[in-house]
Amino acid sequence: MTEPTYDQPPLVTGDKSLDDVTRDICAPMERKPTGLWWAAFIASFSALVLGIVAVWYQLVTGIGTWGLNKTVGWGFDITNFVFWVGIGHAGTLISAVLFLFRQKWRTAVNRSAEAMTLFAVICAGVFPLIHMGRTWLAYWTLPYPNARGSLWVNFKSPLLWDVFAISTYLLVSAVFWYVGLIPDLATIRDRSTNKWRKRCARFLSLGWNGSARTWHRYETVYMLLAGLATPLVFSVHTIVSMDFATSVIPGWHTTIFPPYFVAGAIFSGLAMVLTLAIIARKTMRLEDYITKTHIERMCKLMLSMGCIVGLAYATEFFTAFYSGNGYEQFVFLNRALGPFAVAYWIMVSCNVFVPQLLWIKGVRRNLAAVFAIAIAVNVGMWFERFVIIVTSLHRDFLPTSWADYVPSLVEIATFIGSFGLFFTCFLIFCRIAPSIAIAEVKAAAELGNPKLPVSEERAA
Amino acid sequence: MGNRRQNDRRMNLANARAPQRPASNLEHMTAQQGVSRRQFLEATGFSLTLAMAGCGQAPTQTALPLPDQPAGLSPGIRQAFASTCGGCSAACGLLVSVQDGRPLKMEGLPEHPLSQGGLCAIGQAQTIELYDNLRLRDPLEQGQVTNWESVDRAMTENLANIRRDGGAVRFVTATITSPTLKGAIDEFLEGFSDGKHITCEQRSCSAILDAHLQSHGRRVVPRYLFEQADVIVSFGADFLGTWISPVEFTAGWRKRRVPTPESPVMSKHVQLEGRMSLTGTNADQRFLVAPDEYGNALSHLASRIMQQIGAAAIEPVEEPPVSEAVLDDLARQLTEARGSSLVLCDSQDTNIQLIVNAINQALGNYGQTIDLDQYSQQRQESDTDLLTLLDEIRNGTVAALFVAGNDLLHSLPKQFEASESLKHVPLVVSFAQRVDATASAAKYICPDHHPLESWLDAEPTRGVVSMQQPTIRPMGNTRSMLESLAAWQDRPTPAFDLLQQAWQQRAPAGDFQTHWERTVHDGLEPSRETDGGPSRTEYLAPTVELAPQQRVGEYVLELYSKVGMPDARHAHNPWLHELPDPVTKITWDNYVSVSPATAERLSLQEGDIVEISTADGANIALPAHVQIGQHDRVLAVALGYGAPGTDRFAGIGPDWLEAQPTVKPGELVGVNAADLIRAEQDTLRYVRSDVTLRRTGGRKDLAATQLHHRLEVPPMVAPPGAELRHPVQRTTLDAYANDPGAGAVSSHHLPEQQLWPEDHPKHGHWWGMIIDLNACTGCSACVVACQAENNIPVVGKDEVRRQREMHWMRIDRYYSGEGDDLLTAHQPMMCHHCDNAPCETVCPVLATTHSDEGINEQTYNRCVGTRYCANNCPYKVRRFNWFEYSRDSGVLNLALNPDVTVRSRGVMEKCTMCVQRIEAGRIASRRSGERISDGQVLTACQQSCPAQAITFGDRNDHESLVSQAWHDPRAYFVLEELNVRPSVGYLRQVKNRPGDDLGPQSEASHD
Question: Pairing relation of β-strands B398-404 and B168-173?
Answer without folding.
Answer: parallel
